[in-house]
């Protein structure tokens, strides 16, 4: 049995789909963090069979929209004095700006670089988004 010490103040990113944790770990730049970070791969889970977990012994700013695009089933636990003070359940955001890029060459975002790339959730079950300007459909996994 793997045993990782409690963190005093920080963040636990839990219920990550097995195999997706490395993507989040790298996106957050945790490999070069000057504080303790535990990255658990393929942990047993009652609800998911297997999951990844990231424990960060520090409070850091996290873009929850982008994290929700990576895996909308993630739970964020905020830890203060070794106690969970807040649980944040992520989901696919309804609207994202400058996270997913439109690839349609006829879209205004292709020619006018100052126009933000805005997408709206089209189908939550499929994780697809629709461009606000040209109606191009993109997957939640197509973010920059």
UniProtKB/TrEMBL annotation:
Under the heading Pfam families, the entry gives: PyrI, PyrI_C
Q: What is this protein called?
A: Aspartate carbamoyltransferase, regulatory subunit
**What is the native source organism of this protein?**
Treponema primitia (strain ATCC BAA-887 / DSM 12427 / ZAS-2)
**GO molecular function terms listed in the Swiss-Prot or TrEMBL record:** metal ion binding; transferase activity
Q: Which residues form the Aspartate carbamoyltransferase regulatory subunit C-terminal domain?
A: 95-138
Q: Which NCBIfam families does the protein's record reference?
A: PRK00893.1-3
Which residues belong to any copy of the Aspartate carbamoyltransferase regulatory subunit N-terminal domain?
Answer: 2-91
A GO BP entry is:
'de novo' pyrimidine nucleobase biosynthetic process
The answer to keyword Transferase applying to this record is: yes
Keywords, A to Z, come to: Metal-binding, Pyrimidine biosynthesis, Transferase, Zinc
Q: Does the keyword Nucleus apply?
A: no
Q: What PANTHER family does this protein's entry cite?
A: ASPARTATE CARBAMOYLTRANSFERASE REGULATORY CHAIN
GO cellular component entries: aspartate carbamoyltransferase complex
**InterPro entries this protein is in?**
Asp_carbamoyltransf_reg_N (IPR020545), Asp_carbamoylTrfase_reg (IPR002801), Asp_carbamoyltrfase_reg_C (IPR020542), Asp_carbatrfase_reg_C_sf (IPR036792), Asp_carbatrfase_reg_N_sf (IPR036793)
């Amino acid at each position: 049995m793997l045993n990782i010490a409690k963190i005093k103040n920080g963040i636990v990113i839990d219920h990550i789909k097995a195999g997706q944790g490395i993507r989040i770990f790298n996106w957050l730049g945790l490999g070069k963090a000057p504080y303790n970070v535990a990255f658990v791969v393929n942990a047993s889970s009652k609800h998911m069979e297997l999951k990844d977990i990231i424990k960060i012994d520090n409070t850091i700013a996290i873009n929850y929209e982008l994290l929700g695009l990576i895996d909308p089933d993630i739970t964020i636990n905020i830890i203060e004095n070794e106690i969970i003070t807040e649980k944040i359940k992520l989901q696919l955001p309804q609207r994202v700006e400058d996270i997913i890029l439109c690839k349609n060459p006829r879209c205004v975002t292709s020619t006018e670089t100052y126009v933000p790339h805005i997408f709206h959730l089209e189908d939550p079950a499929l994780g697809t988004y629709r461009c606000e300007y040209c109606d191009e459909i993109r997957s939640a996994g197509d973010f920059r």
